[in-house]
Every structure is written in C-alpha cells, then in structure tokens.
Amino acid sequence: MRILITNDDGINAPGLRVLTDIAKDVAGPDGEVWTVAPAFEQSGVGHCISYTHPTMIAALGPRRFAAEGSPADCVIAGLYDVLKDNPPDLILSGVNRGNNAAENTLYSGTIGACIEGALQGVRSIAMSQFYGPDNKDLENPFEAAAAHGAATVRALLNEKLWDDADYKVFYNVNFPPVPASAVKGMAATTQGFRLNTRFRAEAQTSPTGRKFLWVRGGPQHEPTAPGTDAAANLDGYISITPMRADLTDYALVDTLKDALK
C-alpha cells in the first residue's frame, strides 16, 4: 500500500511523527509512506488552496517534502507532482494537536486535506488527538492516537465503508483525551455542536500603540448531544464520523421549492 500523509501543524509537528509510525504500520514492510506537509503551521485554514500564487515545494529527505502552502495544497502537490506517476492508495491527515470534533471540523486544515483527497477520488482519513487534563501532561500526549491509530485505520479500510459517489465519503477520527489504556473503543458518530463555544476576537495593543486582534477558541470540553463526536470523545471513545464535502441541506430543498412558487 502507498500512503500519502500530511497535516496542518507543519512538517516538524510531533503529531506528524506519530502519523508516520501509524502509516508505516498500516502500509506494511512492502508499502510506501510519502510525506507532503506544510513548511509552516497552517492550523485553521480549512480547505483553503493557494489559487492566486505558486507553492514552493522542497525535498527534505527520501519520500519527505515540505510545501509552502495549506494542507489541501499539499494533497494537490502530492497527487500531481510528488506521486504523479504512482498515486497513493490512501491519504492520512494529522495527527492534529487538539480535537477536530463538533464545530472545529469546519475550520480545520486537517479536515481540509481530506476534503481535497476525497474530491480527488482518493480514500482519505483525518486523525486528531483531543487534549484534556488526563493526557495533556503525559510524556506523549498523543499516546491514545499512537496506540490505537493503526487499528482504527485498518477498521476503516473495509470496502463497504467507501463509495463511488460524486462527493466521496471521507472519515473524521478523533482520539479521546485519555491515556491509551483508558480508551474504551471506537464509536460511529455524527458531528456534534458545542452550544457555548464560539471563536472570538480579542483586542490587544502593541508596545507601539497599534491595535491587533487575536482569534481565540472557546471551551473544548462542553458537552455535545449523545451519539456525536465530542460526546463520545469525552466518554473515552474514539469517534469516527463519515463526512462529505456536499453542503446541500437536502431536507430543506422541497420546502424551499414550495416557498419559491
């Protein structure tokens, strides 16, 4: 198996090292793992692509490349430059530092890479490590992802879980904020919503008197509805959410037709 890996935390991120080990485990001794990751951190860029300017790419070592662009740029670079003659069988994105559950999904560059992978017709899985008081001070805060990542990916390689729809499915995986030994298992979930969490801007004045705005997130341990991603994570489960890039609200289409008559 040939696997392309990327992330949004940057080429030197510790989560990418964890993902490399996961990918090597899944690919097996005869497989290949190729890395194309952002040269600098790209958290929060979503599915952004560098449409109006070129992206510089540099080889850092065997099968290891850094691109001055977004995670989606890295997927495009991997498919159309680095691996243009030998396309990957699978794209893995992560392991993100922090959760990409609930509303975080919409901002995530980790997810953006998988959206692009799915649009390009390649099986894609996003992986993120929820942080919390039970794991943030561990020697390896990614312990849960490191221990259970390969098994999770293998579970998702089941042929029945993929399709040939125009907007192909991809999977959003979040590992719970607990030590590896406390993980209870895997759970199929929907995307949750934290009722009291919003991104916001906070003003700060620089020593030169100029005003700057810092974007900050809200509380990450707010409960979400039962059966959703963050709820499963906070209960100790690995959440696995099937997703598509099609944003149509199909349930509202007929109502809209009637309203427009």
TrEMBL record:
Binding site for a divalent metal cation: D8, D9, S43, N96
Listed SUPFAM superfamilies: SurE-like
Group of enzyme by EC: hydrolase
Species assigned in the record: Yoonia maricola
Gene: surE
Main location: cytoplasm
Residue span, Survival protein SurE-like phosphatase/nucleotidase domain: 3-194
GO molecular function, one term: 5'-nucleotidase activity
Cell compartments where the protein resides: Cytoplasm
Keywords of this entry: Cytoplasm, Hydrolase, Metal-binding, Nucleotide-binding
EC number(s) reported in the record: 3.1.3.5
The name this protein goes by in its record: 5'-nucleotidase SurE
Annotated cofactor note: Binds 1 divalent metal cation per subunit.
InterPro entries: SurE, SurE-like_Pase/nucleotidase, SurE-like_sf
Its biological purpose: Nucleotidase that shows phosphatase activity on nucleoside 5'-monophosphates.
GO cellular component annotations of the record: cytoplasm
